[in-house]
Model the fold of this input.
Amino acid sequence: MTSLTGTRALTRLALRLDRVRLTVWVLGLAVMPMGTAANYQKLYPTEADLQAVKGVLTNPSLVALSGPLFDVSIGGLTAWKIGITEFILIGLMSLLTVVRHTRTEEETGRLELLRATVIGRHAPLTAALLTAALADVAIAVLIALGLMATGLPVAGSIAFGVATGLVGLLFAAIAAAAAQLTQSARAANSIAGAILGGTYLLRAAGDTGPTWLSWLSPTGWALHLRAYGDERWWVVLLFVGFAAVFTAAGYALADRRDVGAGLIAERPGPAAGAPSLRSPLALAWRLHRGLLIGWTVGLALSGAVLGGAANSINNLESPNQQLTDVLTRMGGKAGLTDAFLAAIFGIVGMVAAAYTVQATLRLRQEESSGRVEPILATRVGRLQWAASHLAFALFGTALLLAVAGLAGGVVYGAEVHDVGGQAGRVFGAAMVQLPAAWVLAGFGMALIGLLPRLSTLTWAALILSVLLVELGALFGLNQYVLDIVPFAHVPKLPGAAFSVTPLLWLTAVAVALGAAGLFGLRRRDMPVA
Amino acid sequence: MTEAIRADALVKTFGRTRALDGLDLVVQTGEVHGFLGPNGAGKSTTIRVLLGLLRADTGTARLLGGDPWTDAATLHRRLAYVPGDVTLWPNLTGGEVIDLLGRLRGGLNAARRAELLERFDLDPRKKARTYSKGNRQKVALVAALASDVELLILDEPTSGLDPLMEEVFRQVVREEQQRAGRTVLLSSHILSEVESLCDRVTIIREGRAVETGTLAGMRHLTRTSIQVDLAGPVNGLEALPGVHDLQTHNGTVRFNVDNAALDAVLRQLTTVGVKSLTSQPPTLEELFLRHYDRAQGNGQAVTEASR
Done:
């Protein structure tokens, strides 16, 4: 028996457990680039069409959002338009997969059952990495074949597939290391997820400011591999090198700890509950605070970085006369930064909504783990219990948007020497996102109350929102379809005119969904497994 | 005497599974009531209906004079519950969980809490994620037993406890029994525990109560095992009503006899001459097995026969 005995069986088990989940991820990620390319071909059938829009597409605010456009061609546009979305999503898929098959199994005690069978010491981690790698490779191959099938150059298609797959592999390796550090799967996901979010920010800062920042970021590497634009194949080595380092770190850390333990030893805590620990809300604070503090720090940093990037857009050279014309029509450079701020806080709003969903689904976790039972056997009613968690979903999101907006506004204001004027404008651009994020909380609550077993679909709703906002217009989808995304109705502050009507509507939808969910929660059986 | 719990003809289905199939249960105020049944018989489902967590499809339930579904929060001030499968918040310590649950219930007796921690030998400073199954169980037990409530609902409370701790649990429940007006519903499949603690017992199978009453009363309905050395050969014993499983070996006769027929059988034996006789009352195990052993076959017949 070697330390890898049983890897094959465990990999098959993981693939069996994830057969639906991974299939959806793989097909979704594989189809998007092909669809994007096909739609660009329809939109810009001739070289002349492409040249005509070149100016708009090299707009610096888009460079900050999606990275530089390396080649004005259907391939170049496709890689640029869909690149960041693909890289972030494949990174997310890979890290969630590895943590699910390592730390989650360990935390629930299922790994103990498996490790007592003929399973080598390194088999579980290896099987988790293999599972993620299989999905990553499948995505890379399908992307490359799909892009070639739409008639794009072979080298660029392979480069884009490889870049996407490599981001996945690297984040699988990062998750393998993160899963060894903490006892809870949630914390491991948070660490790896924070690294993923950080790479996006570094790249956004680097592509608008000092380029070397982009080279600190794996999502930056993937872009700067330059699919369809004179590919730099050596970038592959960066990925392989760092993936090897993190994988080795994962195995080394795994060897130094016991099953079920993290690297940080558990210290004794208080023997009695603090006097304040006497209500469902106080319990919810204990359960949510780590997550909320982490997100607050993350969004404050993001706001500051993006606020800084907004100013550096002003300093970017206008690449051509056409763009200058476009800019003039948009209201000059001030119009450009305003458009950038509106776009960037649209993204911040969707990122903050990830916290909203996480905090809302905490209700469901408390239920399916059985922890809700002793609470509901006290004088605490169901609505009071639900309200204690929803308070964090709703007001926690408000806090996150507020810190992101303030940090962004203060940094941007300081750079343009107008803190007093800009802080308020940028803060507003962040806060208008709140009702849209609340709609997701309402949707989650509706599922928890009425269809509890399907409540994870709240995540699908968020991902669908992001994709529709990013790609909906390009794919020529019907306006009715695009209108289901709550974020589509948010006023594009700070540039556009403020209108309170859509915000009131969004709030009303959120309240209606939430009320339906609470109504269902009061009437249904608890707990539903 | 009033009724702390009354359930009449409860039916609860989950999809195609019929978890409760016309269940009746009566628990008198002040008694320790054993709620027996094998895994999956519907014990936890019954308890969740009584706690207002699940809503019965048909049938009625009353708890402490109220409706467990509509008056849940008010009734819960007066009871404490230990779930069968205790899961705790991993980053709270045992002491914090005990205090939190006690306060949510409406108060906790601090002296009693300290005493119970001592007796159950539980370290309250450890994070819940580091507790073993038995220790998690102790956290839930201390939180429930340290509350001043009228009704304790304990769902397999000793699963995971070592024999020493099980003994502590029994002592504590016996002390509760001394206190007037405290009612305990103890679900279990550990028969010795029920035998030593409970005043009355309800046995359930496949979502239905198949037997209920005092242990003595139930024993009366069942058979005693008799082993007897006789002076001469026995005649006609087999023919007597109520005699079962007769075996003869070197003058030693063994058989089981329905308690109702005991008198007639003993008269028959003394006519032959008894040299020695041992009799064993039925254990709870036997009572229990009578209901479950034949559950697959003619369960209905067994149920009828034992009534």
